[in-house]
Design a protein that fits this description.
Elements: H1 13-21, H2 27-36, E1 39-40, E2 43-44, H3 46-54, E3 64-68, E4 75-78, E5 83-87, H4 92-107, H5 120-137, H6 148-163, H7 165-169, H8 172-183, H9 189-200, H10 205-215, H11 220-230, H12 233-242, H13 247-260, H14 268-273, H15 275-287, H16 291-311, H17 317-323, H18 340-345, H19 353-365
Parallel strand pairs: 3-5
Antiparallel strand pairs: 1-2, 4-5
Helix pairs in contact: 2-4, 4-11, 5-6, 5-9, 5-10, 6-8, 10-15, 11-15, 11-16, 12-16, 13-16
The structure holds zinc ion.
């Protein structure tokens, strides 16, 4: 159906989930309530959380929540077991956002058809292995000395022997079996080779992580949906009003930011609105090899700003003008008449913008400002 293909490559959880369950409920509220009602003080009580999950329609998508002690990763879904790891270290609002991200993966119908990639855990494994054995892995000229299969085997063994209690207790035969099984899951050795080459060239871990995470075909829709969420019309409105920023000033500021946005922009204002969202936009502008994805970032931001203007901003004459669509092309016939009140508000000793300057020029010439209907 047409509405499944939400605008600009985002996944609308509400539509996907209520359609699948044939049930009408507020998905956003359900996700927040599920987590908030499972809090014990500031921390999640996982027994309570799983009990609450069993009573929620979301149980159709998630089998179980498990605690994770990871610092960097807030949530992670396992597609085979339908379990979701949630970091015990993250604040609840961030977990709500991350859970939405993982649920989008769960309902993403295109998931199985997307090209294979290299995931973040694999890059972690490679980085740990490389930093530990750098001297052994590189010759004097900085070239990698082993073939990729040996490196994969050693990398996985090292990870399992350090992190998996069951592995340590296994027999040697079982250990070899486990490592081989995991190694066979790596479908993109070419990307892993590139990761090792980047590490050998001294590229920073964070940069490598970002580059692969941003370009992961699986993350295309979830990244864009996160931006759509973190800079939603409501989020823009909350930010402007909580900080007592005048609507017109805020709108002009956002238009300015969006029109000049590039990889080297100053992201400080966007970071005030959402630091995760701004990091994501910065990452996409810096690393995305997909021009469509970059175009969609601009489209999502512009469209959300336009929705904010028409739904949330207070009404003044100038805002009414803006509500008519600041991006809409102004062809001769469609030119809108300026209100008398607006014309009177124009300060011709300090006109703002091209149209005001033009208006003042005409006024000075004594000619009537031509207003067509
Ligand atoms: Zn993801």
């Amino acid at each position: 159906m047409w509405y499944r293909f939400a605008a600009y490559g985002t996944i609308n959880l509400q539509k996907y989930i209520s359609e699948k369950l044939n049930e009408d409920f507020d998905v956003d509220a359900e996700i927040s309530n599920l987590l908030i009602s499972s809090l014990d003080g500031k921390k999640l009580d996982f027994d309570l959380l799983n009990e609450n999950l069993s009573k929620s329609p979301l149980k159709n998508f998630i089998n179980e929540f498990l605690p994770s002690y990871s610092i960097g990763r807030k949530a992670q879904i396992n597609f085979n077991t339908k379990t979701i790891l949630l970091s015990v270290r993250s604040p609840i609002q961030e977990l709500i956002q991350s859970l939405k991200h993982e649920l989008r993966h769960a309902v993403d119908k295109g998931r199985l058809f997307r090209p294979n990639w290299i995931n973040r855990n694999r890059i972690d494994q490679a980085t740990n292995y490389f930093s530990k054995f750098k001297n052994k892995l590189l010759d004097q000229d900085g070239n990698i000395v082993y073939d990729i299969d040996r490196m994969i085997f050693e990398m996985i063994y090292l990870d399992m022997i350090n992190n998996d209690e069951n592995f340590k207790k296994s027999s040697e035969e079982e250990q070899i079996e486990k490592v081989a099984k995991d190694a066979s899951k790596i479908k993109r050795k070419d990307l892993l080779i590139d990761v090792f080459k980047s590490l050998a060239a001294g590229e920073k871990y964070n940069n490598i992580q970002d580059k692969y995470y941003i370009n992961d075909p699986l993350e295309y829709v979830t990244h864009l949906s996160d931006i759509d969420n973190l800079f939603s019309p409501q989020a823009l409105s909350d930010f402007a009003h909580n900080n007592n920023i005048d609507d017109e000033i805020f709108i002009n500021m956002m238009k300015d930011i969006i029109s000049k946005l590039n990889a080297n922009s100053d992201f400080s204002i966007l970071k005030y609105i959402s630091s995760d969202g701004a990091d994501l936009i910065e990452g996409i502008l810096q690393h995305s090899e997909n021009p469509q994805m970059i175009r969609n970032v601009y489209k999502i931001l512009s469209e959300n700003l336009q929705k904010y203007i028409s739904q949330y901003a207070y009404s003044t004459d100038q805002l009414k003008e803006a509500k008519k669509g600041y991006n809409a092309p102004r062809t001769g016939k469609k030119k809108k008449r300026w209100s008398v009140k607006y014309k009177k508000s124009i300060d011709c000793s300090n006109p703002k913008g091209f149209s005001q300057i033009n208006y003042c020029k005409r006024k000075r010439r004594g000619g009537n400002y031509k207003t067509e209907g």
